[in-house]
Amino acid sequence: MKLPLTYYSNQDVLFLARDLLGKVLFTEINGNQTAGIIVETEAYNGVSDKASHAYGGRRTDRTEILYDHGGVSYVYLCYGIHHLFNVVTSVLDEPHAVLIRAVEPFLGKEFMEIRRKMPVTKAAISSGPGSAAKALGIDKAFNKKDLAGNEIWIEDHGIQYSAEDIIEAPRIGVAYAQEDALLPWRFFVKGNRYVSKPNTF
Fold first, then answer.
1. CA angle, residues 149, 157, 197, in degrees to nearest 5
2. Among the four residues 23, 57, 134, 160, which has the most C-beta atoms within 10 Å?
3. Can you tell me the mean pLDDT for 171-195?
4. CA distances (Å), 106 to each of 29, 55, 138, 155, in order?
5. What is the mean pLDDT of residues 46-56?
6. Hey, is 1 helix, strand or coil?
7. Is the pLDDT of residue 200 over 70?
8. Torsion of CA 10, 86, 148, 2, to 10 degrees
9. Across 108-180, where does the E strand assignment appear?
10. How far is CA 82 from CA 6, 23, 116, 128, 136, in A?
11. DSSP state, 198?
């Protein structure tokens, strides 16, 4: 069952970043569906978060989508190479987002193998945000998409992890965020092989 748009309007981005673990992210491209179980996320807490693209109320053509209502996608190019997929959350003009950092292949594994040029048995196929997006076929064309639509969406398949199975750790690659770089706002499933490294705590 697709998550309703009301799910994404929750103003507690840390809750959503944790709750999205175990949810299943789907894409449909040219009639072909692929999906992955979300096993690693990072929370970005809007204008007060130095790691957020919207820190200090920054608004640009690129970041304007973050100020939309929750339940749309924010896809941007990182280092000019990797597309990163984020779920915009919260209410209008409160630019929260959850970065999907890793997924466990669930459906359409043969398409993932073609896109990533490696067998699905290799954890690297969808480990890390750039790899996860590429495995699911997510590129710039998926920016600003409605997550209740038919191109990209998230479903609840009843996969749940106990509190003991979820690790909280500092986010990755946000050293520029000064003290906010130390916040434990990265969430991942303990021991899951598709989680980007380091995943042992």
1. 95
2. 23
3. 95
4. 16, 34, 16, 12
5. 93
6. coil
7. no
8. -80
9. 152-155, 166-169
10. 30, 23, 12, 10, 13
11. P
179 is a domain residue: yes
If you search the block for the tokens 């209740």, which residue do you land on?
148
Determine the structural domain holding residue 15 and report its residue range. Answer: 5-189
Give the CATH number of the domain where residue 155 resides: 3.10.300.10
Rounded CA separation 104/25 (Å): 10
Q: Does residue 112 sit within a domain?
A: yes
- DSSP, collapsed to helix, strand or coil, labels residue 85 as strand
Domain total for the chain?
1
Q: Over 60: is that where the pLDDT of 35 sits? A: yes
Give a yes or no: residue 199 inside a domain: no
What are 21's two structure tokens?
């673990």
Bridge partners (DSSP) listed for residue 167: 188
Residue 183 · residue 168 · CB < 8 Å: no
Confidence of residue 78 (pLDDT cuts 50, 70, 90): confident
Q: Is the pLDDT of residue 201 over 60?
A: no
* pLDDT band, very low/low/confident/very high, at 117 (cuts 50, 70, 90): very high
Q: Which long-range CB contacts under 8 A does 165-171 form with residues at least 24 apart? A: 165/189, 165/190, 165/191, 166/18, 166/21, 166/190, 167/199, 167/201, 169/201, 171/42, 171/51
